[in-house]
Amino acid sequence: MSDLALEIKYDDTRDILRKVLGIVSGLVRFIPEVTEMEKMSTTELYVFLFVGSEGRTMNSVLSKEIGISRSNVSIATKSLLKKGLIEMHHDEDDRRFIYITLSQSGRATFDRFLDAFGRIIASVLSNLSERDAERLNESFEMIVKFVKSLSSFDE
């Protein structure tokens, strides 16, 4: 374990949690622009964003990647299917595999979300120097690396 890891104390952990919550709550503030997303449960939102980002996936992949039980993912996908935001398709070669994709309505909703997200990112970046924008990007890359390293605790 590195010296830095040994130095992390309870208050540091609490501060990190506050910062993570600040990031998440800051990013979701624009969701009300997309009415369909505002009405989603947290699990539905995760599933919807993952499918929109990946293009095509399966329940088992969703469960693993977003860290939610298969049964909760199944409930969320059924709800999104009922809302007309996703579609399910059998694999052409092996019908045992069912893929989840966004429906036409889901793609339109996801595109509106991306537009809103893009406006926020553009607004933030317009207030930063080029160096600060690079540092922000590097920080996000470090956060992603950190979060991926957490998956080792699941095994």
For this structure, the quaternary state is single chain
Q: What's the number of helices?
A: 8
Quantity of strands, as a count: 2
Number of domains: 1
Strand content: 5-15%
Helices and strands, with pairings:
Layout: H1 3-7, H2 10-27, H3 35-38, H4 42-54, H5 59-66, H6 70-82, E1 86-90, E2 98-102, H7 104-126, H8 130-150
Antiparallel strand pairs: 1-2
Helix pairs in contact: 4-6, 5-6
Question: How does this model look, in words?
Answer:
With 155 residues, this protein is mainly alpha-helical. The chain has one domain (3-150): Arc Repressor Mutant, subunit A. It has 8 helices and 2 strands, in the order ααααααββαα. Strands 1-2 form a two-stranded antiparallel ribbon. A hairpin with a 7-residue loop joins strand 1 (86-90) and strand 2 (98-102). The longest helix has 23 residues, at 104-126. The chain starts with a helix and ends in a 5-residue tail after the last helix.
